[in-house]
Design a protein that fits this description.
Elements: H1 3-7, H2 11-34, H3 41-61
Helix pairs in contact: 2-3
Length: 67
């Protein structure tokens, strides 16, 4: 996922993307608890970075104001 792709999405689409990524992160944590050998560590890193990208774009779209 690239930031340029996220910039073209609406606020609602970004929220849906963020929800999906958070669910994916949760599922990875649960799978790690069940069978730690089945999970690749780079998957956690990729999901965390994608979550950060989405949040950054959402914050940028809001004008950078925190409320």
């Amino acid at each position: 996922m690239k930031a340029s792709e996220l910039l073209s999405k609406s606020e609602q689409e970004l929220r849906e993307e963020l929800t999906g990524l958070l669910r994916e992160q949760f599922n990875l944590r649960m799978q790690k608890g069940i069978n730690p050998d089945a999970i690749r560590p780079d998957q956690f890193k990729a999901v965390r970075r994608n979550i950060a990208r989405v949040k950054t774009v959402m914050n940028t779209n809001r004008g950078g104001s925190k409320s």
